[in-house]
From TrEMBL:
Organism: Pusillibacter faecalis
Family under the similarity heading: Belongs to the D-isomer specific 2-hydroxyacid dehydrogenase family.
Domain D-isomer specific 2-hydroxyacid dehydrogenase catalytic: 19-314
Full protein name: Dehydrogenase
Top-level taxon of the source organism: Bacteria
Coiled coil: none
Matches recorded under InterPro entries: CtBP, D-2-hydroxyacid_DH, D-isomer_2_OHA_DH_cat_dom, D-isomer_DH_CS, D-isomer_DH_NAD-bd, NAD(P)-bd_dom_sf
Residue span(s) of domain D-isomer specific 2-hydroxyacid dehydrogenase NAD-binding: 111-287
Amino acid sequence: MGFKVGFTDAFRLGIDFAYEKERFQKVGIEFETFNCYTEDDVLEKMQDCDIHILVAAPYTKRVINGLPKLKGLCRFGIGVDSIDVPAATEQGVRVCNDTGYCLEEVATHAFALILDLFRKTSLLDRSVRSGEWKWSVGYEARNLTGITVGLAGCGNIARYLIRFLKPFRCRVIAFDPFLDAATIAARGAEKVSFNELLEQSDVISVHCHLTDETRHMFDAAAFRRMKKNSFIVNVSRGALIDTYALADAIRIGDLQGAGLDTHESEPLALDHPLRTIDSVILTPHSAHYSSKAFETLRMHMVDQAIAVLEGTMPQFLFNREQLGL
């Protein structure tokens, strides 16, 4: 009996999957796309698939335990938030992602948001489009030279951002409980506590995984500790920031503004208060994208699915250690 690979939530990508079909067909693997929105959708439609490729479909313990043929889960991206990894590991299911995906793209987007917040580019653009022609709309614009940039997380994306900041001679500090001071120093930053990050940064760029411990790590209490003229940028996971508390904090002056690519609920609600604040820049969870990165990700997903089915080691096996491989 041949193997079958299914793309669980294909509707999220809006592509024809011709590349995937051709690659799998060449090695005798059946490939099919599905539009699964809920746990029940996955359980109903995906029973005959050995490998599931997904963007954000829910793979809870209930779902994983209800799929006896399941051999591997390939997350189309980096984060595995929608997968119960311990449940998958219990069943011997290999969980793959792509930790090399879009690192430079996300760091570039974070850097662009920082530049925009300091130079008021979007604010000036909106002013001109509205019929004004006043440089003074951006009177609070500042230079980046010599500022203190705080990083919440000092992983691979943050390392790219540090390189981009180097010509501006910024002081870079980082809060990362999983890295020691020597490792952070080797990456170009100074290790600090979370409170020191809040109190010393002119702008904080968030690069953390979302866990129960990090959800809303930036809340009203955190914003009260920040500099009055500081900013926060998030290109990581939306729920790391309590965005309603953020809107309140900006309005009362605890900080000056924010640049957000990710949001706790997407799309961002039309009545969300952040939409009405001029010092907030909002983008639609697009930091990850470039045509080159997307093509590479598609290639890696096919490679990893084939590797799991052939019994070889996938390049990016997220639960390798837990599986004892």
